[in-house]
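Office hours follow-up: a student asked to see two folded examples consecutively, so here they are.
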Amino acid sequence: MEAKSPLVAFLLSFIPGVGHLYIGRIIRFLFYAGGFFGPLGFMFLLLITGGNVYGDDFVVGLVISFIFACLNMLDMIITIANGKHRAFQPQAVVQNGIVIEPDPLHVVEQQEKTKMMMLSILPGLGHMYMGLMQRGITLMITFIGGFGVVLFIATVLRTPSILVLWLALPIIWIYCMFDAMSLLARKQRGELLEDQSLFAHVEEHLASGKKNRATAMILSIFPGAGHLYLGLQQRGLQLMGLFLISIFVMDQLRLTLFLFLLPLLWCFAFFDVMVQLRKLSEHGLQDEPFVATFMPYQRWIGAGLLLVGIYYLLDRIAQQVIQPRFHELWRQYVEFKYMIPTIVIAFILILLGIKLLFGTNASNKERYRRED
């Protein structure tokens, strides 16, 4: 009888009871599956019958399901680490009346696979066990660092929604496990393993100077990133900065009326990458700034940014100094502060309207004069 795969049993155990059913443990399958899905089924019935799903019964049901899920996984990990369960042991077979014992080398390889899988529960540890220190450390830092960075940003910004980025961690974890198992299989076949970091192939690709169309399109999901990949530094940074600054300004000045501009900017950045890819295949790329027409006014733009920075600095100081001592003065200041965005936007719209009314006619007259 062929031995069961510890890796398959481990992955199936994420569904309580299924991993134990795979290795022939019927009673434990019924125990763990019933203990996990029973309370969930009870809560579902409570929900469709109009019961109080936020009461104590709901919380108790979740706790019981969680306990059974943890016991199920812990039992499977101990079973696999022990390695003595008969489902994981190759059995002797009879062919033509001759008993054929399992190959001792195959048994050793299977035990090594089991040990590797257990070590790979912590990403990178299995690679280190094989002597691939660079790859193992890279994977471990990527997983643990991603967890810590997302938690730090969510804590500092006080935005729990950022924790949704943790959904990428299971993908990294599964990749690390399968990468370790595939490298172990190559090692057991006698192939020589090269210790490369996770980003070695990416670095080689970037060093070669070749640009991948699919990669550029995927990166362009975030405005400007695809341009940076293609080497268009000025255009990419301007698009990225314009997109992020627009979000910040609209949030701070409460300009929800202009939120429609963000999808327009995103679509322009996305399709501009397609245009740049066509230019790349035809006659090469030229890093042309996206807002080249504003370059002569960069000092005015810099002065405006400086004034905005000073305003926010003084606003923070005023909040700490005026608010605790002069409540009425602070109330009037807040009312005036909320009027500033309307005044600024109205002033900008008036200037743009004047520019369009008089500047266009003047430029057209100048163009017609030159043609004559």
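And the second, which I mentioned at the end of office hours:
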Amino acid sequence: MVDTMALLLPFIRSGRMTPTAAHPAGPDSDAPHVPDDEVLLDAPDSRLAPVLVAVARGDHAPAAGLLGATRAAAEWERRDRYVLRLAAFAHSRPDWLDAWRTADPHDPHGLVVEAQLAVDRAWRSPARTEALREVSPLITRAARSDDGDPVPWRIALDHARGARAGHRYFEELWEAAVRRAPHHYGCHVAALRYLAASGQDAHRACFDFADRAAQDAPADSFVQALPLRAAFAFLIGPRGPRASRVERERLDAAADRAIALSARLGPPDPWPAPIRNLLIHVLARLDRPGDALEQLRMNGPYATSFPWERQSDDPLGRFLQVREELRVAVSGRR
């Protein structure tokens, strides 16, 4: 793994990670029943929801205002998620974004949404590698339009993975990203996904990188869930059902760390729902239905497409199916 070690350097420490204590579910941890027809898929938070309504009407001003507010407050995680959601909306309804770009072609907020949309479209192209290379200048413009924003660098990291960029180039992008936001979750996920595609023994490299990043990050940072992403990648791979004892320990430690993060993220809300949905999936795969049911209680009515779309073309249906299976499993064990 010599070629990927540079990605790990910012997080190499002398001490070992101390696993977070598990939180076993007790007899009173049954999730309150949310009827199937009240479960929401990919619900926007209270800040994004009115913006999506506005852009559906062709008004881009609230989107510019929202992204401007996240930039002013350095809310990089929210900015990243809002950019992804706005670009996804523009994929099928681009008129409002086209009007925005025409009205203010130098606006850094419009540029970053446009760059995200271009990368999303290129990823869907049959000629993905060539299509991604063609959008490189747009990503560069977005990055130069706001030197302190890490989101264009996260886009660049995703772009580099799809364009099959070499390790040295990816490492340069990574260093630029972490200079701007050392604990930005989106950039870390992009680096983890690059490592996962790096070849032999990738799972070990992913766990090492994720564990060290989480150890270095604040307790309430989404980076605490990075080992959970590594666990998910392992579990859906060919070795997932045949984990060794050491691998199983790492998988459980990743889940326990994410459980501790979930407890810090507050009551049911769309904002922590992606972390909790992934945690429910991993706990179910680890045959920890009691812990998974407790996360369902904390998650409330919020389902997210990821990770359920990896198992089914109907992510909401798959979420509901797993929810019912967990309730049955816990009831049977009692």
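Two things to take away from it. Residues 214-334 form one domain. The first helix runs from residue 5 to 8.
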